[in-house]
Amino acid sequence: MTLMPQDDRSWFRWAGYSQLPTEEVASDADETRSASETHCACLRHAVAMWVALPATVSVAVLTGLISVTCTAGYPRWFWVVVFIFEVHYLFSERQAWYAVKAVLTQPQQLILRQKGVLKKRRGLFSFGSLVVVQMCIDFTFPFVARGCDDTLTPRWAAAFLEIPCVGQRLSTIIHSLRFWGVAALVALCNILITGIAGIIRMSSAPSGFSEDGGQSEDRLPGALYFEWALTADVAVLPSVAFLCNEIAEDKKYSFKPGDCAGTAAHFREAEAHKVADPMATMMPAFMKKNEQAYREQIASMKLTERGHYLIFTCINIVFGNLLPLWLQASFVALVFETENFWTKLAVIASMTISTYVTVTRLKSVFSYVGPIAAIPAALVVLFLLYIAAKIVFIYQCPSHLWNLSSGCVNEAATLPM
Hints:
Blueprint: H1 8-14, H2 28-62, H3 76-103, H4 106-114, H5 121-147, H6 149-160, H7 167-177, H8 179-204, H9 222-234, H10 238-251, H11 261-273, H12 285-288, H13 291-334, H14 341-369, H15 374-396, E1 402-403, E2 407-408, H16 411-414
Antiparallel strand pairs: 1-2
Helix pairs in contact: 2-3, 2-5, 2-8, 2-9, 3-5, 3-10, 5-8, 5-10, 5-13, 5-14, 6-7, 8-13, 9-10, 9-13, 13-14, 13-15, 14-15
């Protein structure tokens, strides 16, 4: 009978592993610099998208530098603004992506490459570029609606009169706020709740390493990568957010120095298939002693992950996509018979991008959170179906307006007085 070896290296050979894995660990100075570059790139782009972009559009329109009218819609100079922020997105994404990669060891990068994480960067970069275009259109949309206010507000308020019980009150509120005021309020809520609050959280979030005297299980705690992913989400850098999420997911299966790659892969497979670990009975004491700490780390990471995607779903999707979609669908219906073709085209393009962004984010939520996201996802899907019905009934209703509670709106009631 072969006795189990007592030292670490002999145990791995006894278990069938030829050698222990080695890692090329970067210096603390390099790691700190990479962490700082990631945080700064995300923070800088977040400020650009959530502060500089709406401020630039507002100042340009209100001072008359950019003329936004109902007939002309989005002027040519608007697309120059879009181009400038697209270039900023290009440089910020590149800096943040390579800064995150610089923190990783060569074995970690190899694992991500084998999982196909790195090759998804191109598609996610294009996705982020579309989000930048959508945000530029959405933040300018209230000013376009302001130019069409004589047409929009009276008809929209009249359409609400047919809603049972609360229609009269809603119509009165709309007459006071105006259509463009509601659109501006939604945009402002999106900026404050998603953007400014996210930037404040980014400023207080950890951007470097844990201060536990080097006793943590990883060189970078797994939960920190979830913080980075949330930071990248706020900064509209989906490729960086995806990379950080995948790294954090892999950190669930990290082990103390001295653990072998084969054992980690074995535990990863056992976790995925929900089976008992057959090696548990022959694990030496040096691997068993940290089992409870490992389980607590897994629970902490899962809690952080679910909190991340709860914020991601309830705030980002609702204020950034669904409410603007509802307003833009109403806008297209209200100006359907006017001649401002390019305005309608830009709004429809924004709606298309917003729908695509919403569906993509739902898929991302399901891939990380699982069934717990079923209820909010179902509500989002129902709302998207409602928006689709509004678009269909633009062509079916004589007034081009449709309410969920009352059907097609009476055309006579929506005619300008």
